[in-house]
Amino acid sequence: MTNSVHVLRPALWLAGRAGWLVLAVLVTGATVARAALPEPIAQALREAGVPPSAASLYVREVGREQPLLAHRATTPMNPASTMKIVTTLVGLDVLGPAYSWQTTFASNGRLQGGVLSGALYVKGSGDPKLTSESLQAIVTALRARGIREINGDLVIDRSRFAKAVHDPAAFDGLPLRPYNVGPDALLFNFKSVGFRFAPLPDGTVRVITDGASPDGLSIVNTLRTTSGTCPQDWRSRMAPNFDDRGNAVTATFAGIYATDCGERDWYISLYDHTGLFAAMFARLWRDAGGTWTGVAREGALPRNARVLHTHISPPLATMVTDINKFSNNVMARQLLLTIDAELSKRPAQAKRAGRSIRDWAKARGFDLPDLVIENGSGLSRIERISAQSLAGMLEYGLTSPFASDFLSSLPLAATDGTLAKRFVNQLAEGNAYLKTGTLTGVKALAGYLLLPDGRRMLFVGIVNHGNAEAAQKALDSAVDWVYLTEAAKLKALTR
Q1: What residues contact 18, with CB distance under 8 A and at least 6 apart?
Q2: In terms of CATH, what superfamily is 102-164+273-313?
Q3: Per-residue pLDDT tens for 55-78?
Q4: With 60 as the cut, is the pLDDT of residue 256 above it?
Q5: CATH dotted code for 10-98+317-493
Q6: Rounded to the nearest 5 degrees, what angle is found at the Cα of 102, between the Cα atoms of 99 and 106?
Q7: Identical fold at 10-98+317-493 and 102-164+273-313?
Q8: pLDDT(215) > 60
Q9: d(Cα 105, Cα 301) in Å, to the nearest integer?
């Protein structure tokens, strides 16, 4: 891997902001770990109302033992979405970048004259991105096998993931939010239905689904438009109500919608996992001209069933990019359970995954004694890891055979993902690959800072405090401080 495309503008690198550079020279001597926070970082924390005791920072050059900065670096912290670094790195190592999930369609019934007499079995393996587009391709493939009528049940096998109680309201009391969806061996469309709203000239509002509407979904729409700017709570202004009975859902919108909102989408977690898949299969199968006379139910794929079609997901390297660049919580949950299924050779359990990952780390020569994993996504109040441990994971990732896949999966400063508008016109722009993390009371940033002389710095910053949201500037200041400190060293060496 080379850094030819990651070269800072020399003048900016060496000169920087004049005041900062002078400060960097003053605080930089030999490469000695600092327990005290550099003043620019400390000042940003003060401005945010966050005490130094609520922050953890660790910065070290790859391949060196002595850190440049270590502040409360061994203290276990809630990492928010930077926990996805652990999940995706272990996933790439255990499964490999080319790993793919298979969704199997099979039957032990007889196919004659276009009629499948017997059940159609569907076995999921935990595909994080099985979508309506995927299912449309599956329906087309089954039709190409000559099937036009299914005279039997749709039997869904979800056994690769152990059954577990999941309360979607437990995290923040918002059970309809797609990010609160629990993992499932046959996750479909992130267990969500998209609604599209658009104001019309006659004062009414058009409400349609984003894509094909699942069977059993009814929309009751008495929305009226109103003038004024689009409010932040535009969703609640529509007085939404969802009567979800598993196989039949009625979505009611009876309030107002500001014309200034324009066209907007709202994705809502509806149906149960089996119900949503079955409802969309029924709709797409019927739209393709097929008939189905059975019902949907859960069951096990018989050993003697013959495979009719196997849907193969995109490779893990692609999934990891979606997880890290866009911080997809549901996909991270799916990956964690897939890791456990592969390591344990048993139906996956999230509770077992943390122990499995600690064992994995020991086998590769480093410990994660402070690791606490609940779901692997960071959408948790109990997940913990220290900045130093997270940096160790990052170093392993950069020296692994899948380094390029992992590096490119992280948001690039001022370029894409969750960093698309962050670090613009700063030294990190286009040169820092960093995973973000945000929860109420948590702000985190972790990844790699690429220096123009080819060196790479491991960077981890975590804040756990009620004012954490205001501490983003402090984390950004820490990134800036690293670049300016190294610039000062380089300038001193070239005199």
Answers
A1: none
A2: D-Ala-D-Ala carboxypeptidase C, peptidase S13 (3.50.80.20)
A3: 999 999 999 999 999 999 999 999
A4: yes
A5: 3.40.710.10
A6: 160
A7: no
A8: yes
A9: 9
